[in-house]
């Protein structure tokens, strides 16, 4: 009888250890997945981002397979640019404004505008006009998104904030 109790006690302890290990491993797996998500986003910073516009069908009737037509004139939800929420950079006199610095600003602005005004794809290039002044050309996919005057003003405000260390001659926004 004592042996049976001892064996059953060992069995129960083994089951508890296995369950505890399973919980610890699953918690580690979830934590690693979250960290990998951050690492994956950071690894894409140097790669060009392309967004594809996919029409969303709204509403269903009786069955899940039958989809009705999308609502007309429905605009995609966009974050937009809020100048009150803009991060105020400290003015640094040691920033060397050259073509490489302006190109890095263009890449960053492309990513930020795609986040703020998705699903549009943005392509931003700067032209050096000489004497450290630049013209910023912003092109976006007109088939993926259209902007009203308010949204265009938000884009101008964002570019003005982002490029405040750079002497800008002009900002051109057009669709392709």
From TrEMBL:
<protein>
    <submittedName>
        <fullName>Uncharacterized protein</fullName>
    </submittedName>
</protein>
<feature type="signal peptide">
    <location>
        <begin position="1"/>
        <end position="27"/>
    </location>
</feature>
<keyword id="KW-0732">Signal</keyword>
């Amino acid at each position: 009888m004592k042996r049976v109790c001892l064996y059953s006690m060992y069995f129960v302890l083994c089951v508890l250890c296995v369950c505890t290990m399973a919980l610890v491993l699953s918690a580690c797996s979830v934590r690693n997945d979250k960290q990998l998500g951050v690492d994956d986003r950071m690894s894409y910073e140097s790669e060009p981002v392309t967004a594809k516009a996919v029409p969303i069908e709204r509403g269903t009737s009786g069955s899940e397979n039958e989809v009705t037509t999308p609502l007309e004139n429905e605009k995609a939800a966009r974050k937009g640019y809020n100048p009150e929420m803009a991060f105020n950079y400290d003015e640094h006199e040691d920033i060397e404004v050259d073509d490489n610095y302006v190109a890095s600003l263009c890449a960053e602005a492309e990513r930020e505008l795609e986040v703020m005004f998705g699903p549009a794809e943005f392509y931003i290039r700067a032209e050096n006009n000489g004497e450290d002044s630049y013209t910023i050309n912003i092109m976006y996919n007109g088939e993926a998104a259209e902007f009203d005057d308010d949204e265009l003003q938000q884009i101008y405000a964002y570019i003005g904030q982002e490029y405040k260390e750079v002497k800008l001659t002009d900002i051109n926004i057009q669709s392709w």
